[in-house]
Amino acid sequence: MQQTRAVVRLDAVRSNAQLFRAAAGTKLCAVVKADAYGHGAAEIARALRMQADCFAVALVEEGAQLRHAGIGGEILVLCPPLTEEEALRAAYHGLTVTVSDRQDVALLARACARFGARLRCHLKVNTGMNRFGFDEEPLAAALASRWPRGLRVEGIYSHFYRPEDRAATEAQFALFLRMAERAQQRFGRLCRHIAATGGVLAGPRYALDMVRVGLGLYGYAPAGFSVPALRPALRVYASVAAARTAFSGGAGYGSYAPRPGPLSVVRAGYADGFIRVGTGRNALCMDPFVAERAAQKYEDVCVFSDADAYALGHGTVSYEVLVRVCGRAVKEYVDG
User: Fold this and answer.
1) N or C: which terminus of the chain has fewer CB atoms within 10 Å of its end residue's CB?
2) Do residues 76 and 145 share a domain?
3) Based on the domain organization, do 63 and 153 belong to the same domain?
4) Are 225 and 201 in contact (CB under 8 A)?
């Protein structure tokens, strides 16, 4: 088989989810954006139907794909809609959208009025990450203004930018609680959530009404935390396309010169999502790479099993690695 083969252990994902649910002691939102960090969003969502209270995606399109795959329940879209048509699609599929500033409110109001739509939403507030979110005074102004008909506020959330830093996390948490209280005075009881994977590991007091777990589901902890009980769920395999012996020249492009001896040419490259830079070698090409080891042609070899180690060797983070390495892979699911 020319494509790489990604083997995903669904039992590991469920085990990881249960660990975080028990640690948080509250509702679990399973983050399956970016095709569940490369693991396959629909299959992961199906596997977690008994552990997750809802799911989170980045884009309306991702939420629509889950609906087409038969995934019911609440799906929170983390990036605010950018067009009225996108808002309409969210309404059609029963997705919960994010509202992060007054322009979002105006866009969604126009969409509701134009199409007669009704939308559920969570407010996103900025407590220090400075991506999406109302700052404190703009939030107060929005809450004091007339709220659009058809736009139902059900939750409020933020995001810790450095959960391993206790002082920064406490400052964010205090600001979030203040903003959430003000929003609840306007809308009544809301689902409050600020802790993602790192926030759960920082302590149960940050769990509030729900936690959003992404990286931890797939077996990894963010920087600054270590959880030995987590089980990585993904391995990637590729076929040996050629077996040869090095005698002169290089291996792939550039200055990398292998030692004399056996080489195996493996059918996986940067077009499959692997990273060329960072190792000091250029043996990785677009479609294959050359390894200094003996192997039999057509043999199946494991080319990825540890996102943390791979990220460390390539100057990046495990998040990026996971969403890349299944680029052209055929996924296989193992359960139990």
Assistant:
1) C
2) yes
3) yes
4) yes
